[in-house]
Amino acid sequence: MTPSPDRGAPVRPLRARGGESAPGGAGRAAELVRRVRRLEISTRRAVEDTLSGQYHSVFKGRGMAFSEVRPYAPGDEVRSIDWNVSARTGQLHVKRFVEERELTVMLLCDVSASAEFGSGARTKAEVQAELAALLAFSAVANGDRVGLLLFTDRVERFVPPRKGRRHALRLVSELLQLRPAGRATSIGAALEFLRRGLRRRTVAFLLSDFVEGAGGGPPPFERALKVAARKHDVVPVTLFDPLEAALPAAGLAWLEDPESGAVARVDLSDPRLRRRFEEEVRADGERLRRLFARLDLDAVRVRADEADPVAPLVAFFRARARRLGA
């Protein structure tokens, strides 16, 4: 057997999300609180210093909202006249509108088994938690509502969008403590839930490694992504580990697909095998890139082994602000 293009990963123990190493329920709760607090502190500077002036400028609100009715003044547009109020008062009045900047932000986080892989100090799941915390705290700092959708091959948890720091802390806590029922991935299921569950336009950050199916063809979630992108501002955030794209020349090794559990014993000293694997991974990545480009989605790529995984997200905000002339 050879490693398949759906990213067979070296066998490694899965890390628990809820601090399972701590003895007893009280110990687990205390560890969870510490982890949530660490994430809040680690993302605070990026939220306050870097994103505070850019966050709202790169996303559109829901449009214009009615503010008040006031007496007509020379220069006001005729089409803004409120004829009902004018008739009642005997004096011309106009409607005044203001731009509605409040946003609804959704964090769609892939918590399938492949997220638990990491060849460096952190797994993709741990990097994802940091990015989700940054986005959640950025949203509430700007007075926006933020919600959370955790998914595997099913929707594991949905927290409706709300405002406030306490709510953001809850979202981070939910992400860290979840023990998923599923192991595989269905991005389409998450996007379909988003489409049905949120009627208003939403800024949806889709955090995933986008590893789904056997590879070698169009992504199985292509149609769902296309439909979701018509209604929402979808921002794909791809999390990847370099070891998943370039296998080491390590000789005989056991490789495991963390989502299906399939295990293969392969000879990684064979350069043809490694080259074929890398070509397949590269082709899958190129198909994904073309899909995002075709749907005009601003995508972000984040390496799990980066010293500062938040930097690509900050760069995304800056680049989008420049592109939109914000």
Note the main attributes of this structure:
about 40% helix, single chain, 8 helices, alpha/beta, three-stranded antiparallel beta sheet, six-stranded mixed beta sheet, about 325 residues, disordered N terminus, elongated
Give a written overview of the molecule:
By secondary structure, the protein is an alpha/beta fold. Helix content is 38%, strand content 21%. The strands form three sheets. The chain has a six-stranded mixed β-sheet, sandwiched between helices. The protein has a three-stranded antiparallel β-sheet with strand order 1-9-10, with no helix packed on it. A two-stranded antiparallel ribbon has the order 2-3. α5 packs parallel to α6 (222-231). The radius of gyration is 23 Å and the shape is elongated.
* Radius of gyration using CA atoms only: 23 Å
Number of distinct helices: 8
Structural class by SSE content: alpha/beta
Distance between the termini: 52 Å
Mean pLDDT: 84
> How many β strands by DSSP?
11
Major β-sheet profile: 6 strands, mixed
Strand order of the largest sheet: 6-5-4-7-8-11
Strand proportion, as a percent range, falls in 15-25%
How much helix, percentage-wise, in residues?
A: 25-40%
CA-based shape: elongated
Query: How would you spell out the order of helices and strands?
Result: EHEHEEHEEHHEHEEEHEH
Unreliable segments of 5+ consecutive residues: 1-23
Question: How do you describe this structure in short?
Answer:
Helix content is 38%, strand content 21%.
Strand and helix map with partners:
Elements: E1 9-10, H1 24-50, E2 63-71, H2 83-89, E3 93-100, E4 104-110, H3 124-141, E5 145-151, E6 155-162, H4 165-177, H5 187-197, E7 203-208, H6 222-231, E8 233-240, E9 252-256, E10 263-267, H7 271-294, E11 300-303, H8 311-324
Parallel strand pairs: 4-5, 4-7, 7-8, 8-11
Antiparallel strand pairs: 1-9, 2-3, 5-6, 9-10
